[in-house]
Amino acid sequence: MLVTNDERFILPSHKEKGVVTIGKTLREKCAVKKGDRLLLAVSGGADSAALLLALAALSSRREHAYHLTVGHVDHNLRSGESSEDACVVRKWCESLHIPCLIEKLDSDELSTGNLEAEARKARYRVLAEFARSTGAGLVLTAHHAQDQLETVLMALIRGAGPAAMAGMNWQRNLQDNISLVRPMLALDHDWAVQLCRQCGLVWREDLTNLDTSRTRSAIRHQILPLLESLRPGVARRVVDSGQIWRQAADLLRQAALDAMGQGFTWERAELASLPPAVVMEGFRQAAARLVGRSGADQISLRKLAACDRALRDNVTSSRKFQLGNAVEVVVAAYAVIMNKPDTRAED
Q1: Element of type H or E holding 96
Q2: What is the pLDDT, as a whole number, of residue 345?
């Protein structure tokens, strides 16, 4: 084991099982090469702390030799505590001689809409800026197997399509030529906690994660322990099944594109002749093109199914269906049309 200069904590061996898994995942699933510049997102919690320890251990080896920079985003939402998180992360990096970039957000910018979603969007924007400033093409996060299970369960509750049921991918485009990679998906939170304890590193706790009034937190603290007790290792099996779901989603996506094209107007009879799954996937794709967002899979199954049922019934009068605030589907006698709803106030 390597010891940091001030001996407050030690690095794990590069042969530690989880560390080996991370190195293999980076190489085989995330296309990370020897000597790559990496931007690691570190919040101060146990998961990102464990990934920091693992990457520091790997970077010291000639076969990896990563150029690592840590990025920390202070959301400025927890009075005093978030600033303390930033100080702790900075001290870790000083001990490890790893460059650290920190930015504090203006909390007023996050006060509207879905706070959690707005904070995530702002965090990824800052991390992409950090990566670009350091010449890193990859941003690493510490999402793990339980995070994947939570994501899949939330998609299931929402009635999402197969792409969402696949959960998080090992890597995805974040911004321009910068990719987001998740090398810890094959590991779980317990491994992260154990590694931090073994290395003597004391992590930070975000008490807002205990708020079970939020859906994800309720799933984490109430549902996941029950599932794990019924079927130990369930989270890792969900990670493994993600690839199968992703292949199924690709097949459905191509079938919808072949049948419905890239327009926004279709013959009603033609759509009625297609399987419902193909029609609903076609609507998701069209919605993404119309409003310029890749998150059309967030549209609920309930709303899509209502459109599909309408185009198959015998009603000939025109009906409008809202798929979201920015997408409307009109089912007319002979045609189905998707457009942006007219939000102008009536005279």
Answers
A1: helix 81-96
A2: 45
